[in-house]
Amino acid sequence: MKSIIDLVNIGSIKEELKIDAPFGEKPKAALVKALEIAEDLGFKTKNSDNYIGYAQYGEGENYIGVLGH
Questions:
Q1: What DSSP state is assigned to residue 3?
Q2: Is there a domain that residue 67 lies in?
Q3: For each of the chain's 69 residues, which pLDDT tens digit applies?
Q4: Does residue 66 sit within a domain?
């Protein structure tokens, strides 16, 4: 529950473009926080220039992807 509350409190509504924050500072903060939570849960994470990120569990060619916002 705490992780959900932390994410919701960021208020990730699209803002003014920044060089390292293509959708604004708050959306970037939400992405970084979500990936931090995933890492704490044991996932490998990837942040692609603050546009998107993903968490991966396991190794190999086959895996399941889940998209969300």
A1: H
A2: no
A3: 999 889 889 988 888 888 999 999 999 999 999 999 999 999 989 999 999 999 888 777 877 777 776
A4: no
In whole angstroms, what is the distance from residue 8 CA to residue 21 CA? Answer: 19
3-24 burial, b at 16+ Cβ within 10 Å, e below that, comes to eeeebeebebeeeeeeeebebb
| Any domain includes 23 | yes
What separation in angstroms does the CA of 7 have from each of 1, 31, 47? 10, 9, 17
Instruction: Give a yes or no: residue 17 inside a domain.
Output: yes
Are 55 and 45 in contact by the 8 Å Cβ rule? The answer is yes
The domain tally of the chain equals 1
Q: Tell me the two tokens of residue 55.
A: 């968490």
Domain extent at residue 34: 2-56
Looking at residue 7, its pLDDT comes to 87
